[in-house]
Amino acid sequence: MRIPELIPLFAVLLLGACGGSGMDLAEMSAARPIDLQSNAITPLPQVEYRIGVGDKLDVRVFQVPDLSFDELVVDTSGNIQLPLIGLVQAAGRSSGELSTDIAARLSVQYLRDPQVTVTVTEAASQKITVDGAVTKPGVYEMRGSTSLLQAVAMAQGPTGIADLTKVAVFRTLNGQRSVAVFDLAAIRQGRAADPIVLGDDVIVVDTSRLNSALRQIITAVPALAVFRPF
User: Where are the beta strands (DSSP E) in the chain?
Assistant: First the structure.
């Protein structure tokens, strides 16, 4: 069956900072239509979690306990403070990038080939919305890197009426709202990769009880793990 050239999509309105309250699908407002046959699709990137303001980090310098710290909090400027090297920009970087930067700075004057490990222990600045056919829809805080399976589990899992072959992730990419559909059943069975979700993502598990227009969107987009702009 040919997909209609233009199908109206709905921009997702994120809830406020308070978690735990459900997202009313009726709050979605009409946005620009999407050409679902367009070649302008974005392959699913292999993303790494990006550190944000307020995140708590464990920093370990191998065999140097005086330079190893638990729960360093990223300040409002996006920095952490470390002995010898001072302020280090953390926000916007992956754990690996921050580890490399700290090691490079320490190696300039203080240590030879330092081995540095940075771990995000709490990602207070990152929130996702999980809605649709889940037990407890709402806004949830991520604790470090979070996969799609883990995100659905935060909402206490899918309900009995969920269609796990149609799980949509709404995301802003380069300032453009986009959507991708994943087969959660295949992910659970190990037949597909479990993608990482990002802060501000909105995850909707399909069900026959969804708003008809939203369900048309999810049904029309193939579960190909690619994001399509709208």
Answer: 10-11, 29-30, 42-43, 56-61, 69-73, 79-82, 86-89, 116-122, 127-132, 138-141, 146-147, 162-173, 176-182, 196-197, 202-207, 226-229
